[in-house]
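Issue: ligand-bound run for iron/sulfur cluster - logging full I/O for the record.

Environment: standard queue, default settings, no custom constraints.

Inputs:
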Amino acid sequence: MIELSLRYTGDIPQKEPFVCVVTEAGSEPHTRGANKFIKNDGKYYIGGQILSIINQNGILEIGEILIVFPNEKLIQRFYRPKVNGNTILLTEKCDQVCMMCSQPPKNKDYLHWDLYLEAASLIPDGGTLGISGGEPTLYKNQLLQFLIDCIELNKNLQINVLTNAQHFDENDIDKLLILNKNVLCCTSFANVRVLRMQVLHIRTKLLVLLAGAEFGQPVP
Ligand code: SF4
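Outputs:
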């Protein structure tokens, strides 16, 4: 199994969490000015300091986008260029209790909006990012603004949001319109209140369809 959370030893002068990109020694600066996490002869360096990754299979690829949490000596692998399943786990909270849920809800959030935005801005042209939970739309307003900011900074980024979709309503149409080209909301839902939820899902889908029709855009 690929480990997405890596522990390291070594000291980094910076104490606040930050975003960086894995690069080779001597490589050109990143076009968007990202911090470098330098890989050289199987060793890693940042800010002139050498880091050792503790996880046995913690081998980073060139081009990976990382979020480093120095106080926890933790590296989160945000984006790996060779895979198409890069996903932000935004929260483990959910307001449903689906029997088939593969990840039963827990009372935990990971709402690093600014770090995610910076990291998403560094994803190469045409890349895809997922957003999952729990239920991401428990933070609907922040989420919608985050999505808008993402595509403002990275115009060709495709974002797939896994959601039960029940929190969208008519007030979200303007924002859904802005997101229509880049963002696909995927629903996966089957609990005992399925009938009520299906009605809500259809209503949400109609909102998206309406948005697409108005602008003559293909609807995902
Ligand atoms: S809505 Fe999704 S995350 Fe929430 S309980 Fe159901 S399957 Fe799990």
